[in-house]
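Quick one: structure for this chain?
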Amino acid sequence: MAVKKRAATGRAATLMREINAELDTDVRLGSDPYFKIERIPTGSLVVDRITGGGFALGRHYELYGDENAGKSYIVYRTIALSQSRGKLCAMVDPEHSFDNERFAFLGGDPDELLMFHPKRAEDAVAVMMLLAKHAQERVLEVVGIDSVSSLVPREEMENDPRTEDRMAGQARMMSRALRRLTTVNEKMLFIWTNQERENIGIRFGNPKTTSGGRALRFYATGRIEFRRGSKVMGKRHKARGFKLVESEVAVGRWTQVKVEKDKSTIPGREGAFIFNFEMKEVDPASEIIQLGLEDGLIERSGNLFSYVDLEDKEWKGTEKKFSGFIHENADLREELETAIIDQTIAGDDVG
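Got it. Here's what it folds into:
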């Protein structure tokens, strides 16, 4: 069997060279390293886990779901981490919601980020086409689009706002845009955030749909759904009736994430993390405890969590105390994060 496989590969290679020589094309063998999926971290251990190790370069990803559920946060963290590896990134921001101080807080460098506030959707596509061409030099790595719903086609901009809009205009524009972007793109990652709308006229099935028609969901390698979960409450001192009293206040919120589609790994994976309002970012302890339990790194007995580190020191306590250990001890946090990342990579290794 091995001899036949080598012979077939040899014939394919010969035919490939003949075609490329005659047509001046770039036909490749399926074993070419170009086709190996390269992934980059998303800034969330949970999102990395459910996407098989991070976002795949050269693809489209759509993040959609509830408002204020962390979609934009994941985009900015992915870009910040890409910059930390020496790559250039860009943001297309039709919502005009970008905050350079917030981006810097998340680890990004605003001075090295290309920003564009498009007046028309067609302008955004033109810029993204040029960026995709420059990505062939492997300098540009990520383009974030926040969001699809705010991309206004030319025909809508030129119409009198008092007249009724043609709802299919944005869908047609997205279909044209994705065909062209996908054709010229090689290894640049496009991350699109999207909002949901009521699916008018649907009596059965899903009552909601995403903006921009169906093109993005078809072209996207991955679609990740973000849903707001329950609030995380904590005791804080608040002024009530001119007195300082201890009150229960919301200090965070659970976010549920689910991969509705993924052509590069196993779809249907789910996870959850806490977005900490006071930290203004995903709480690392929530992700480490969740995934540590799944991977068998952390044990739970009753309401106590425990972990024995590489130096045989045992860390044990309630959820609050154990989270404190993770927040306050960088070496412990790094050790657990490394073990979780290794398990994520091993769990998605199909080789």
